[in-house]
Specification:
This is Cationic amino acid transporter C-terminal domain-containing protein. Belongs to the amino acid-polyamine-organocation (APC) superfamily. Cationic amino acid transporter (CAT) (TC 2.A.3.3) family. This protein is mainly α. The chain contains 24 helices and no strands. The protein has a domain at 34-220 and 247-431: Amino acid/polyamine transporter I (Up-down Bundle). Helix 6 runs antiparallel to helix 14, helix 6 crosses helix 15 and helix 13 packs antiparallel against helix 14. The longest helix has 33 residues, at 108-140. It is globular.
């Protein structure tokens, strides 16, 4: 009896949603968002305050003027994940983003983990952006607000609490929550204004850099650094001089470029929010893939241009790490331009805050609509047709976090959750492309397949080793069937395991691997050979021929490269971050096993087979 109960429980963990929307779920929210609205959401979230701060820290301490190459590498890495999101947006254009993609492909438990970590990333991002908004305003008024509130908390408080309650940050979150309640069309209009002003300010910064910049700042020498160190009147040196490196365009070499790229990668986080608009986009199957690609391209141009302008205006070792752009304009004698930067910063923070809150509420709604979270959160307002309870709940949670907590120790927690989600999306697109029964046409074709074509795979248990290998390299069917789907799922799971081991070795012992350590080098080479062989087996399997608005190119290589990049960056995280990550997911498991697994809408459906089958 216990074995039977365990089997039933395991089947529940891997049950999946149908690819098509459920009856009654369509039309609950208003389809009013155009392609321009989706692009504005993606650009607004991605080009937050990071574009005004990130280039300063990376340029000064890691990459120098070669930060433009770092952003190019980071953009290419982000495109790998972006393309996977784009195809899923064409396949499953519903609310929920990566949560929905995992649900229709991998199974319910992985979907819950995906959605739960998305909520964590969104909540921390919202709270930190709101605090940044408050801090920027406070600095403009001479820090009077922080000084007045600094004694509110008792002297001995837990380290995770802020030094004072930030009521302005809470108010900003509540205002944005009110805008979201008004409706998706109204929210998109406000976001477009914020994003448009931000783009204009960034364009002004880029143009100013090319007007006032000096190409000599990309060719600096040790003598220039010595002269700068001997000067004392340069106001851009409020933070002191940074390390000189070896001078030139790439003073810190290739190591600095790639270290900078790892940091710059997180500057592109946010494009996935476009995928949460599937329930409100007018033409989601076309507009979501297009908007993801366009928003990533716009964000790359902005990061690239701002970094180039900054490094042309100011020598990289004189860039102020906390206030790079205002100090850069002061350095070139354009002091009033600092106020333009302030306007852009407020608009960037506001658009990022509004877009992230929009995304968090839609993921909350999607999980509640599937009954993996509490059903009351799926309530739709009859007039505005917005997920009113999901907006109020997510906004209240993020607002309280902005009021009470500090986030200096939680930035990596956002990163690890985002990277996990990106990896699951890449895995899902890899598996889904090779599965049968994606639509009614595929079902009819599979049913019409002659039995003789499936016979070689059905007789695998009795076949010889050569017969097994032949079935892997020479599939019996030209379209996906059940056995080919099983092969791809098993091979993809094995590849993820191998990539995790390879990433762990490269992250923890990189010098030993590349310096010729016989054991680690042999293991790394063996892993690469196994990965190549299994990848070829997947490549030999038939793919779903269904026409789509967008399809990821170079399958299965591109999703696997995306998974490797994401897992490698995750392996660079500290043990403290992994501990925090484990605690958050433990809380999620309590909710899922206490509520979601029993109330899921798939509970009353016909029991589905394990995830290794083809009913996806």
């Amino acid at each position: 009896m216990r074995c039977q109960d365990l089997r039933q429980c395991s089947q529940k963990l891997v049950r999946r949603r149908p690819l098509k929307p459920r009856e009654g779920s369509e039309g609950r929210m208003s389809r009013c968002l155009k392609t321009l609205d989706l692009v504005a959401f993606g650009v607004g979230i991605t080009l937050g305050a990071g574009v005004y701060i990130l280039p300063g820290e990376v340029t000064r301490n890691k990459a120098g003027p070669a930060i433009v190459i770092s952003f190019l590498v980071a953009a290419l890495s982000s495109v790998l994940s972006g393309l996977c999101y784009a195809e899923f947006g064409a396949r499953a254009p519903g609310s929920g983003s990566a949560y929905l993609y995992s649900y229709v492909t991998v199974g319910e438990l992985c979907a819950f983990i995906t959605g739960w970590n998305l909520l964590l990333s969104y909540a921390i991002t919202i709270a930190s952006v709101a605090r940044a908004w408050s801090s920027t305003f406070d600095s403009l008024i001479g820090n009077h607000m922080s000084q007045a509130l600094r004694g509110t908390f008792p002297p001995h408080v837990p380290s995770f609490l802020a030094k004072y309650p930030d009521f302005l940050a809470l108010c900003v979150v509540l205002v944005m929550m009110g805008i979201l309640v008004l409706g998706a069309r109204e929210s998109a209009l406000v976001n477009k204004w914020f994003t448009g002003i931000n783009i204009l300010v960034l364009s002004f910064i880029i143009l100013s850099g090319f007007i006032k910049g000096d190409l000599h700042n990309w060719q600096l020498t040790e003598q220039d650094y010595t002269l700068a160190a001997s000067g004392s009147n340069d106001s851009s040196r409020l933070g002191g001089l940074g390390p000189p490196g070896s001078g030139g365009f790439a003073p810190f070499g290739f190591d600095g470029i790639f270290q900078g790229a790892a940091t710059c990668f997180f500057g592109f986080v946010g494009f996935d929010a476009i995928a949460t608009t599937g329930g409100e986009a007018q033409d989601p199957q076309r507009s979501i893939p297009f908007s993801i690609v366009v928003s990533l391209f716009i964000c790359f141009l902005a990061y690239f241009g701002v970094s180039a302008a900054l490094t042309l205006m100011v020598p990289y070792y004189q860039i102020h790490p906390e206030s790079p752009l205002p100090q850069a304009f002061l350095h070139v004698g354009w002091d009033p331009a600092r106020y333009v930067v302030v306007v852009g910063t407020f608009c960037a923070l506001s658009s990022s805050l509004l877009g992230t809150m929009f995304s968090m509420s839609r993921v909350t709604y999607a999980m509640a609509d599937d009954r993996l979270l509490f059903q009351g959160l799926s309530q739709i307002h009859p007039r505005t047709r917005t997920p009113i309870m999901a907006i109020l709940a997510s906004g209240t949670l993020a607002g309280l976090m902005a009021l009470l907590f500090k986030y200096t120790d939680l930035v990596d927690l956002v990163s690890i959750g985002t990277l996990l989600v990106y990896s699951l999306v890449a895995f899902s697109i890899l598996v889904l492309r090779y599965q049968p029964d994606l639509n009614e046409k595929a079902e009819e074709e599979v049913e019409m397949e002659p039995e003789v074509e499936e016979h070689p795979l059905d007789s695998v248990p009795e076949a010889s080793t050569s017969r097994i290998l032949k079935s892997l390299w020479f599939p019996a069917s030209t379209i996906p069937i059940q056995k080919s789907g099983q092969i791809v799922y098993g091979c993809a799971s094995l590849l993820v395991f191998l990539l995790i081991i390879l990433s762990l070795i490269l992250a923890q012992w990189p010098r030993r691997v590349f310096s010729g350590d016989p054991v680690l080098t042999a293991v790394a080479v063996l892993l690469l050979l196994l990965i190549t062989g299994v990848t070829v087996i997947i490549w030999r399997q038939p793919q779903d021929p269904s026409p789509l608005m967008f399809r990821v190119p170079a399958l299965p290589v591109l999703p696997l490269v995306s998974i490797f990049v994401n897992v490698y960056l995750m392996m660079l995280m500290t043990s403290r971050t992994w501990t925090q990550f484990g605690i958050w997911n433990a809380i999620g498991f309590v909710i899922y096993f206490g509520y979601g697994i029993r109330h899921s809408l798939e509970e009353n459906n016909e029991q589905q087979p394990p995830a290794s089958t083809s009913q996806i």
